[in-house]
Amino acid sequence: MKIYNTLTRKKEEFIPLEEGKVKMYVCGPTVYNYIHIGNARPMIVFDTVRRYMEYKGYEVNFVSNFTDVDDKIIAKAAEEGSTAEEVAQRFIKECKKDMSGMNVLPATTHPLATQEIGGMIEMISKLIEKGYAYRSEDGTVYYRTRKFKDYGKLSHKNIDDLQAGHRDIKVTGELKEDALDFVLWKPKKEGEPYWESPWCGGRPGWHIECSVMSRKYLGDEIDIHAGGEDLIFPHHENEIAQSEAANGVEFSRYWMHNAFLNIDNRKMSKSLGNFFTVREVAGKYDLQILRFFMLSAHYRSPLNFSADLMEAAKSGLERIITAAENIRHLQKSAPDLELTEREDALLKEAEIYTEKFEAAMEDDFNTADAVSAVFELVKFSNTNTSADHSKGYLEKLYRQLLTLCNTLGIIIEKEEEMLEDEIEELIAKRQAARKEKDFAKADEIRSLLLEKGIQLKDTREGVQWKRV
Ligand code: AMP
Ligand code: ZN
Questions:
Q1: 66 CA to centre of ligand 2 in angstroms
Q2: Listed residue (330, 348, 323, 322) closest to 395, CA to CA
Q3: Cα 183 to Cα 137: distance, rounded to the nearest angstrom
Q4: Surface-to-core class of residue 402, CB atoms within 10 Å of its CB (0-12 exposed, 13-18 middle, 19+ buried)
Q5: In the beta sheet, which residues pair with residue 277?
Q6: I need a labelling partner for 460 at 20 to 30 A (CA). Which of 62, 327, 358, 448 fits?
Q7: CA 182 to ligand 2 center in whole angstroms
Q8: Each residue of 265-310: pLDDT tens digit?
Q9: Average pLDDT of the residues of the chain
Q10: With contact defined as beta carbons under 8 Å apart, do 305 and 395 qualify?
Q11: CB contact at 8 A, 23 and 219
C-alpha cells in the first residue's frame, strides 16, 4: 500500500510501526458553528482510509479531536449570551449528526481540548525544562522555534525565509524573543474561560492540543497524522516541533493532507458568500450523495462543488443501488441449487473488479479509480444476473458489491423503513402505558420511535407523528 507523504513529497510503501496495527490522528473541527462541506472532505476522505485499512485486516486506532475552546467559540458565546462550553457542546452534537449522515464512523476516541488541559500543562513544562519554551513577562508561554533544528521539514520552508517574511511585521504588545516563536499558553482575558497553570491563569494555544491528545491516545510515535492542506503550515509544522522536542522521537511516520473543496471553481469562503454547511446540503440531497461526490475525486486534487456534479453523483449512486436491489430481488425467488461451472467462472471473472478496486486504493487511496471499478462490477452484475441464476451465485455477487461499497462507506442496504402499522401499534402501546401511569415505559417507547426516525407530538387532538 502506497501513501503520499507530505514530509518526503513521495509516495511511500506503508509500513506500520506495529505489525497489523495503525495509529492515526486526524485534526478535527473547531466547533462554533455547523460544519461546512469543506470540513466534510477530510472527514470522508480519512474515514475511507480507515475503512480500507480495516478491510485489509489492520486494527485501526483512529483519534480525531474537537477543538472546543477557541476565540471563535468565545465570540459566538458572547454574541448569543451563552457560554463557550454550551456553544461547543451543541455544535459537537450537530457535527456528530452530520458525520452519521455521511456514514463517517465515530473515531475510536474523540478527545476534547478542554478535557486535556492537565496534559498540555505537563508538555509545556517539559518544553520549558528542555529549553524549547519560555514564559514571557505577561505570563504567555512561547515555543522557541529556532531551537528546533528541523523546523520547516514538513512544509519544506526555510527558516531564514520565514524570518525574512516576519521582519516587516511589527507585532505590538507581544513579548517574544523572536518573531517566529509561537504561543503555547496565553493569559486569560476578562470574561473568558481559563485554567490555572504555573505561568498564569489562561488557556492553551491551538497547536499544543493536538500534540498532547495524539500522545495520550496513541503514544509518542504514530503512523499517520492527517488533515486539510491548510494545516501543513503552521499547525502541523508546530505540532512536529512540540512533539519531537518533548518526546525525543519522530512524531508521525506519514503525513497526509487533502486538497481543498471549491465552489463553482472558486475557493469556498464565508466572505465570498459561496459557502454551504453540510446541514444545508442535507436539505437538498441525501448525505450519501455528498460522500459519493467527494470520493469521485482523488483526495489530493482540488474538488469543485456544483449542482451539476452533485446531480451526476446522485445518478451514479442510484445506478449502484439499483443494481444491488436487482440482485436482492432476484435472490428472493432464485433456485437453491449448486453453483454451475458457468457461475463459478463468472464469479472468478468478477474478481477482476475487486483486484482493480484494491489496486486503486493501494495507490495512495485513488478513490476515483476505485469507484470506477465498482461501476464496472455493477455493469457486470447487470448483464450477468437473471431469474435462472442460483441463490448461491447471486449471494456471492451481492457480497462482493456490498464489501466494496462498505469499504467506501457507501450504503447500498438501507434499513427497512418502519411501516405505518408498526408505528401506530407502538403509539397505542405508549398511550396504554400513560393511562396506567407507567411513564418510564411511555418514554421508552417514545425514544425507541425517535431512534427509528419517528417523532411524536402530543396534541389536543391526540398523538401526531412525523418522520425526521
Ligand atoms: P477547521 O475547523 O477550520 O480547523 O477545519 C477542520 C478541517 O477541515 C481541517 O482539516 C481543515 O484543513 C479542513 N478544511 C477546512 N476548509 C476546507 C475546504 N474548503 N476543503 C477541504 N478541507 C477543508
Ligand atoms: Zn491538529
A1: 9
A2: 330
A3: 13
A4: middle
A5: 36
A6: 448
A7: 15
A8: 887 866 677 889 999 999 999 999 999 999 999 999 999 999 999 9
A9: 94
A10: no
A11: yes
Helix, strand, or coil here: 143?
strand
Name the closest ligand to CA 272.
1
Q: Kindly tell me the number of DSSP H helices and DSSP E strands found in the chain.
A: 15, 15
pLDDT tens per residue across span 1-19: 999 999 999 999 999 999 9
User: Any residues with Cβ below 6 Å from ligand 1, and which?
Assistant: 27, 29-30, 38-39, 41-42, 227-228, 230-231, 258, 260-261, 268
CA 186, 188, 194, 198 dihedral sign is: positive
Answer whether 0.85 is exceeded by the pTM.
Answer: yes
Q: What is the pLDDT of residues 116-133, one digit of tens each?
A: 999 999 999 999 999 999
| 3-state SS, one letter per residue, for 374-421 | HHHHHHHHHHCCCCCCCHHHHHHHHHHHHHHHHHHCCCCCCCCCCCHH
Q: Taking 90 as the threshold, does the pLDDT of residue 453 lie above it?
A: no
Instruction: Return the SS3 of 227.
Output: strand
d(CA 334, CA 191): 69
Burial string for 403-426 (b: 16+ CB within 10 Å, else e) reads: ebbbbbbbbbeeeeeeeeeebeeb
Q: What CA–CA distance (Å, rounded) separates 393 from 335?
A: 10
Which residue type is seen at 60? Answer: V
Short-list 103, 105, 33, CA closest to 286: 103
In b/e form, how buried is each residue of 18-55, taking b as 16+ CB within 10 angstroms?
eeeebbbbbbbbbbbbbbbbbbbbbbbbbbbbbbbbbb
Q: List the alpha helices (DSSP H) in 33-102.
A: 37-55, 71-80, 84-101
Residues present in the chain in total? 468
How far is C-alpha 444 from the chain's CA centre? 32
Q: Ligand 1 centroid to 310 CA: how many Å?
A: 20
Residue (of 208, 184, 204, 170) closest to 134 by Cα position: 184
The Cα diameter of the chain in Å comes to 83
pLDDT over 70, % of the chain: 97
* For ligand 1, atom 12: residue with the closest CA: 228
Long-range CB contacts (within 8 A, 24+) of 147-150: 147/245, 148/241, 148/244, 148/245, 150/240, 150/241, 150/244
Question: Rounded distance, CA 353 to CA 374, Å?
Answer: 7
Which pairs with CB-CB distance under 8 Å and at least 24 residues apart come from 347-350? 347/393, 347/396, 347/397, 349/380, 350/377, 350/380, 350/381, 350/384, 350/397, 350/400
Identify the residue whose C-alpha is closest to ligand 1 atom 11: 228
Q: Cell 437473471 identifies what position?
A: 386
